[in-house]
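Q: How would the structure tokens look for this protein?
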Amino acid sequence: MKIQFNTDHNIDGTEEFRAPLIAMISERLSRFSSYISRIEAHLSDENSDQKEGANDMRCMLEARLEHSQPVAVTNTANTVEQAVEGAIDQLKHLLSSKLTPSSDY
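A: Here is the predicted structure in token form.
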């Protein structure tokens, strides 16, 4: 499972900044790694670097699935870490429901 990280111009996307977030995404989504070819993470500061505000950090995670259409989730929070954690939780829930065989009752 490859993880591609993108940030807007308001977030410093250095390797030091990205490494722990990539590790968190990889670890928390590892059970789906056989279904996911790539995850694209997009981080942005919705209020820019000139303003502060609640829930202004946005994380969009897009999972490219093997033999299926990509799925995406978005989460906003006060910090980048919280935004990423929330997006991971949403993606885990979405993948669990999408990849779990349902029964037709």
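The first helix runs from residue 15 to 28.

The chain has a mean pLDDT of 88.

Upvote if useful.
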